[in-house]
Specification:
It is built from 29 helices and 19 strands. The chain is an alpha/beta fold.
């Protein structure tokens, strides 16, 4: 960092010519700069340019910190730093960390011993259950209001809520009005009273009464440091000192992480040791509000804390062409341009809503998904470049069945196949009890999962050890399932659940072998009152609805198959085998949208773009818009939108994209970008020819340092003085010799890299 700004960059990147917007950010001199970037606008690359500029101006690599929010983003940051031309040795000297890794380093300076890391839900389950066991004694006044459940779903929901409370710094009850019941506090924070009190007891056990916590889970280091900085401001002295901090993906920022970053930036005044900050994010990619993410940090929190904050736009996307860029501009009502001379296909495909009892058109939509995949394959593109992105996981049922029928291999990442979800495993378990055919499920882990689902929906109060033993025993000896149902579910299960489950099993057992499968499933759902049961097991109304619709989708699949009860059970076994098959390549990705953020694909297919599906009526409108924006902007070459043929039933998002209205402008933009790309190529060739015939400049002349016209050289150390006399220069940032524009290249030919 130098004291005097320069109007031209001193760092010249390799392999790219920065846009005017990128140059502005590269040369920004304000202490706090926020980059408001569009999807695919090279946020990370632009931050790498800013780092390169600081290095070129003499700032030591050890004085620079690059922050991300995930290990994957951290690796991308390192890659981009090298791609812009920084030597690997220089990148190795830079500090590139996730926010949580930074917090861990700071806390390690203050703590005598490192807390035990418990980073998975499996590892956190035991301390969570320990905390739950002591809940009644810790809060006797609320004993009648506590809902003590030990099943995996309850623990999973609790851990999610705990993470939310910590991300928002909302775990501590603080000084509250003693007259205000804790039920109101829980409602205000969007969780159940049981989970709120459970979180207090869990945190008490985690802290252990000492200065150092007993263990840390995911993001606990960030939470612990943020609390420390707020409770004891003098602890900020433990933070390392950097002169430049760059941060990516600010749209994932939450209150705990913001507290750490804010303190890091506030440690110095505007003097010589001031910390400079450049953070990039896209307010339209805030989709994790349940984890505390919010656009408020980009919009006003930084500016309120640091009044001289300057905002810079980064509008040009390099992921897709003008057609999708302009459609997103219309959808989000913000400037979006593309720098690519290509057309990104925008295909809108329609399907008819069913006239039958389901009326959701799931099968018809799935048919169009298969058709879109086949067209892509006919166009000579690999299927592994395709991603089918869903708003909700219940939508996968019809699509998975269609993929299996078409023999198209698929993979999932965070979302399990519908056959492996709790609610479907429960129905499979009910059929297995009634038909006495658990042995037809070949995979032992699936058998164990079925037992766990029966215990969950049967509200059986087994300890983790008891349930684990039952799962292992029954998986090895499937005939024991009948005994488990009779002596566990029917004796100690929830009173209502066991009565209803027994009625459902008796009814199915009385059906003939050729009875339609869907009728049996409908009777099971009615007898156990599956929707009411889901409401008791899942806290959030949205989660309950997804589970209920998943069950409805499974019943619809049984109806569409036309199979009898036993034939359908056999088909499930075959489907299990298809899902379990480990195909090596050319697999389509099937995933929920929120898990695709930060990724990109050649072809993105968005099915079920219908009223009531996307946007989801139970979710915040703003976040639904952001979710669709994230989904659409994952596409590089083609975006396929599958929507009802009845325009009244279509998602309003499609009309807002104004695909037809922006087409002419997009066609013109493609031609403009093609002409610009051609001019750049022609100009570069002409400059190279001129360089070969132009004599060296007169002494004292300042050669033009244009990135497109300089020639890198491969110079051994022994030759450095010789090439210097011939006009070559040393790029201290990229650690490479080069011939500037205007220097006679002929004498330097021996040091040109061999192609």
């Amino acid at each position: 960092m130098t004291d005097s700004p320069s109007p031209t960059p001193q760092f010249v990147p390799a392999g790219l010519v920065p846009t005017a917007e990128q140059c502005d950010i590269q040369l920004a001199r304000q202490r706090v700069c926020l980059v408001h970037a569009n999807a695919g606008a090279a946020k990370t690359t632009t931050l790498a340019l800013r780092v390169g500029e600081a290095l070129a101006r003499g700032l030591p690599a050890q004085a620079i910190l690059a922050l991300t929010f995930t290990p994957e983003a951290r690796q991308v940051m390192r890659t981009r730093l090298q791609e812009v031309g920084l030597p690997a040795s220089t990148v190795a000297q830079l500090t590139v960390l996730t926010v949580d890794e930074l917090a861990q380093r700071v806390l390690a300076r203050l703590e005598d011993e490192a807390p035990l890391p418990l980073l998975s839900a499996r590892e956190l389950k035991e301390p969570a259950l320990d905390a739950l066991e002591g809940l009644a004694d810790a809060y006797p006044a609320y004993l009648d209001q506590l809902e003590i459940r030990t099943h995996d779903s309850a623990v999973s929901q609790f851990l999610d809520n705990l993470l939310t409370l910590k991300a928002r710094l909302a775990l501590d009850l603080g000084e509250r009005d003693e007259e205000q019941p804790l039920t109101y506090v829980a409602e205000d924070r969007g969780i159940s009273l049981t989970d709120l009190l459970w979180a207090q007891e869990f945190e008490r056990l985690r802290q252990g009464g000492g200065e150092t916590p007993q263990f840390r889970g995911p993001w606990d280091a960030t939470y612990d440091l943020a609390r420390l900085l707020r409770d004891f401001p003098e602890s900020a002295d433990a933070l390392p000192t950097w002169r430049l901090v760059v941060a990516d993906e600010l749209h994932d920022l939450n209150e705990a992480a913001y507290t750490v970053v804010e303190t890091l930036l506030a440690r110095s005044s505007d003097g010589r040791d001031a910390v400079y900050f450049v953070g990039a994010g896209d307010r339209d990619q805030v989709i994790h509000s349940r984890l505390g993410a919010s656009e408020q940090y980009l919009d006003h929190r930084f500016a309120a804390r640091f009044p001289a904050t300057m905002s810079y736009p980064l509008t040009v996307t390099w992921r897709h062409g003008p057609h999708l860029a302009h459609a997103m501009e219309a959808f989000k009502n913000k400037p979006v341009r593309s720098g690519l001379p290509v057309k990104t296909d925008l295909d809108v495909i329609t399907y008819a809503l069913d006239a039958g009892p389901d009326q959701d058109g799931a099968d018809a939509c799935a048919v169009q998904v298969i058709a879109a995949l086949r067209r892509w394959k006919q166009d000579k593109h690999p299927l592994e470049g395709c991603a089918i992105l869903l708003r909700d996981r219940h939508q996968s049922i019809a699509i998975e069945n269609a993929l299996m029928q078409a023999d198209i291999g698929y993979r999932t990442q965070t979302m399990p196949s519908y056959l492996r979800r709790e609610e479907i495993l429960f129905l499979r378990g009910m059929l297995a009890v009634a038909l006495d055919n658990l042995h037809t499920v070949e995979a032992l882990p699936v058998r164990e999962a079925i037992i766990a689902a029966l215990a969950l929906f049967g509200e059986v109060p087994l300890s983790p050890e008891e349930l684990g033993q039952a799962k292992r025993d029954i998986a090895k000896q499937p005939e024991l399932l009948k005994t488990f149902f009779q002596y566990q579910i029917q004796r100690v299960g929830g009173e209502s659940a066991r009565r209803r489950m027994a009625a459902a099993v008796d009814h199915v057992r009385g059906l003939p072998d050729d009875a339609p499968a869907h009728e049996a499933l409908l009777r099971i759902c009615a007898d156990v009152a599956v929707e009411n049961l889901a409401q008791r097991l899942y806290v959030h109304p949205y989660d309950t609805e997804v589970v209920t619709r998943s069950v409805q989708g499974f019943v619809a699949a049984a109806r569409a198959s036309g199979r009898s009860l036993r034939d359908f059970a056999a088909w499930i076994g075959a489907a299990d085998a298809f899902v379990a098959a480990r195909r090596g390549k050319n697999l389509v990705l099937l995933e929920c949208v929120e898990s695709a953020k930060g990724k990109e694909f050649d072809h993105v297919i968005l099915p079920f773009l219908a009223i009531g599906e996307f946007p989801h009526p139970l979710q915040a409108a703003r976040e639904e818009e952001n979710l669709f924006y994230v989904a659409a902007t994952r596409a590089r070459t083609r975006l396929t939108l599958i929507t009802p043929s009845d325009e009244r039933q279509r998602s309003p998002y499609i009309a807002r994209m104004d695909i037809a209205g922006t087409r002419a402008r997009s066609d013109a933009a493609v031609q403009t970008n093609q002409a610009l790309r051609q001019a750049q190529a022609t100009g570069g060739a002409r400059a190279a020819k001129t360089a070969r015939s132009t004599p060296p400049p007169a002494r004292g002349a300042a050669p033009n340092e244009d990135a497109g016209n300089r020639r890198d050289l491969k110079v051994p150390y022994a030759d450095k003085d010789h090439v210097k006399k011939l006009g070559a220069r040393w790029d201290a940032t990229r650690k490479v010799w080069y011939a500037p524009e205007g220097v006679d290249i002929e004498p330097l030919t021996p040091w040109l890299p061999k192609d």
